[in-house]
């Protein structure tokens, strides 16, 4: 995703990606429907800037919806616990290579798969669709680039505990761990960067 305020010109995007203008136009419409692009009169499409309040709302929704999904996944007993444990292990293996930018991208990918597996196990069609709209916001996807090693370890420990709760069929435990997990992610994302603190 491009930086907030970037103008999206159909012809330039079509040329950049080797596409006709029709799929580019459709992609811009989809991004507009998802709230990631706004169409400004006499300027065209622009990437939306998300405020701290927007992220508070996004993580508030995640806290409610993902906790509900985790509770359901535990109570229904349909989750692939072995796969959840594999994903936990794969994320933990990335801790030794955090100096490589690819490690954060891989953690993000594995984390998305972990959470999506819980969403699928905890809901039919509507819940996973709602959660995909909330979580697919590009800046939310890049949260792991802001994590310290301590925060990553805490997050991975919460993944393990969440998996244990789901395997135990304990909905209240799964709900509580997921809520704590999401709220910790919110605190990390909204924490000012060092240069932001200096500017205040």
What ranges have pLDDT less than 50 throughout 5 or more consecutive residues? 196-200
Q: Count the helices. How many?
A: 10
Q: Radius of gyration in whole Å, from Cα?
A: 19 Å
Shape assignment: globular
Query: What amount of the residues lies in strands?
Result: 5-15%
Distance between the termini: 28 Å
**What is the subunit arrangement here?**
single chain
Q: Which CATH class of the largest domain applies here?
A: Mainly Alpha
* Largest sheet data: 3 strands, antiparallel
CATH architecture of the largest domain: Up-down Bundle
Task: Provide the residue-averaged pLDDT.
Answer: 83
CATH fold annotation of the largest domain: Four Helix Bundle (Hemerythrin (Met), subunit A)
> How many strands?
3
What is the helix fraction of residues, given as a range?
over 70%
Number of domains: 2
Strand order of the largest sheet: 1-3-2
What is the string of helix and strand elements?
EHHEEHHHHHHHH
What structural class results from the helix and strand content? mainly alpha
Per CATH, the superfamily of the largest domain is GntR ligand-binding domain-like
């Amino acid at each position: 995703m491009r930086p907030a305020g970037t103008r999206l010109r159909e012809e330039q995007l079509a040329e950049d990606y080797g596409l006709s203008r029709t799929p580019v136009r459709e992609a811009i419409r989809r991004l507009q429907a998802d709230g990631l692009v706004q169409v400004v009169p006499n300027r065209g499409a622009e990437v939306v800037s998300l405020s701290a309040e927007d992220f508070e709302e996004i993580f508030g929704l995640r806290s409610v919806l993902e906790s509900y999904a985790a509770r359901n996944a535990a109570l229904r007993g349909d989750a692939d616990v072995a796969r959840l444990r594999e994903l936990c292990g794969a994320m933990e293996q990335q801790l030794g290579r955090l100096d490589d930018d690819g490690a954060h991208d891989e953690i993000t990918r594995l984390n998305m798969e972990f959470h999506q597996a819980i969403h699928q196990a905890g809901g039919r069609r509507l819940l996973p669709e709602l959660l995909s709209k909330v979580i697919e916001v590009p800046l939310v996807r890049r949260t792991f680039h802001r994590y310290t090693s301590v925060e990553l370890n805490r997050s991975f420990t919460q993944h393990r505990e969440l998996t244990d709760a789901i395997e135990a069929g304990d909905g209240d435990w799964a709900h509580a761990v997921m809520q704590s997990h999401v709220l910790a992610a919110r605190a990390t994302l909204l924490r000012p960067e060092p240069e932001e603190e200096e500017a205040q």
